[in-house]
Amino acid sequence: MVEFAGIFCNVKNPMNNRAAIILAATATVLCYSGLALAADPAPGQPEISQEIKALRTRIDQLEQKEKAEQLQRHEAEQKLDEKITTEKLAGDVAQRDQFLSAEGFTAGYSDGKFIIQDTEGNFTLHPWAHLQLRGVVNQRNGHQGSAINPEDEVDSGFEVRQLRFGADGNMFSPDLTYFFNWATQRNSSNVNVVSTTGTTKGTVIGTAGNSLGGVPVLQQSWVKYHIPTSPFYLKAGEMKDPVLHEQIVDTRFQQGAERSIAADIFVNGDAFTEAATIIYDPNTFIRAEGGINHGMRGANTNFESYPNNGSFNQFNYGFVGRVDYKVKGNWKDYNQVGGAGIKDPLLVFGVGSDYSERGHDGQLVSVVDATYVEPSGLNLYGEFLNRYTTHNFGYYINSPTGASINAGDPAVAGHATDEYAVVLQAGYMLDQHWEPFGRYEYMHLQGTPAGSHNYIQAVAGGINYYFHGYRLKATGELQWLPNGLPFDDISNDVLANTNGKSEITFIAQLQLLL
């Protein structure tokens, strides 16, 4: 036994790893154990036992160390797996981004709007949608019942005042821009049936019902080209007639719930028309635009002239021009009415004019307007409008079926008339959310229905709450007409009241702009 133990103890192990060390330690323990068992008891027996215990302790330490190193290796392998997974996911994302930005195009939300564009900025697409939900209460004093015992009439309800969608941007280069938008028809109604043949061609021979509620109607579709290295632009398509600042400003950026009644009557609200204009804009203190159009009320018509186009509210052609002079401020702040979001003083004066001809009749509409805004919150706007007609052919109605002309007072029909209006508007931004405002209008009209008032006044007041600027805005507005209005202005939810008595309209409106 002693010889076996001695031989085992003299074995040389060339292994260098930890297992070899443990094996060697174990062999050593066995060697000493064998010696202890084979040899006779001796006085040195306790010392051998101590060495065996020490060796066992060492073996335990080596085993614990091995377990710790195995744990470290496992953690390292986990981290490596996580890194590989992360890099793979990053590669997948990069691949998707590369797919999204194919040919250098990117998409996202920038400068408060959704936009798709290439890296060079030569192609951009900005889609948008505009919604106005409105609740209305309208009271006409003495409108209902007999002339002897008239009663007040109250109409109330909800409506989708605006549901518009469109896109704008540029293509091929920043010098070529475009703008397209549609609005949904507000309701179903009756339309005129017009004769297209014989001696009655162009005259109304009847009416027919339609179900156009919600059908998209084209409002604007124009392109504009900037002549490189010059301050000149060429613009063509269906656009806003560049006459009155309040009317040029998009519906999205008005201060009140609606434009003034005067803007509706004198320039047909938005005043969309087919036109081609030249713009001078050196981006300094002045800019101007002028050109030829299909008449002030020439939206969505074909090339034919009155009366062959079968529409009695259109003209043959027209000429238009406007000049703006900026005393101080930024032009971008001039794209709205009111003081929301404006941080620098703004003062701009503008003049505009449109001459439109219709057969042997013609009209000249001229305006002067001014805009003033202080960073403190005060904002003022004023305008003077004048319309001269060579042969008065009636008065305009802005009704659910669109703008039209109705026969006016026979006393002035066919005669030259001169009409005018004054509009004053003011508001004050209390903070970035609250804005009270007020407006006063005075109009002297001619050609209104016989027996009605030619002098029209309107007083309006309300308050805006901007949740997120014009993108989410609530408006409450009350409008009072001391002598009513002798015809409809459906944009302002004002209904005809020809008896000269008062009319009140309350509007609560929520605007959402995407």
Judging from the principal axes of the Cα atoms, what is the shape? Answer: elongated
Q: From the alpha carbons, calculate the radius of gyration and give it in angstroms.
A: 42 Å
| Proportion in β-strands | over 45%
Give the end-to-end Cα distance, rounded to a whole number of Å: 96 Å
Contiguous runs where pLDDT drops below 50 for at least 5 residues: 1-16, 35-40, 399-404
- How does the helix and strand content classify structurally? alpha+beta
Average residue pLDDT? 81
Give a count of the beta strands, DSSP E runs of length 2 or more: 22
SSE order, as H and E? Answer: HHHEEEEEEEEEHHEEEEEEEEEEEEE
Topology of this structure?
Elements (H helix, E strand, L loop, with lengths): L1 H8 L8 H21 L6 H56 L4 E6 L2 E6 L5 E22 L4 E22 L1 E12 L5 E5 L9 E6 L6 E11 L5 E9 L4 H4 L12 H7 L4 E9 L5 E8 L23 E12 L17 E13 L2 E13 L4 E12 L5 E5 L2 E5 L10 E12 L5 E11 L10 E12 L5 E10 L21 E11 L1
Antiparallel strand pairs: 1-2, 2-3, 3-4, 3-22, 4-5, 5-8, 6-7, 8-9, 9-10, 10-11, 11-12, 12-13, 13-14, 14-15, 15-18, 16-17, 18-19, 19-20, 20-21, 21-22
Helix pairs in contact: 1-2, 2-3
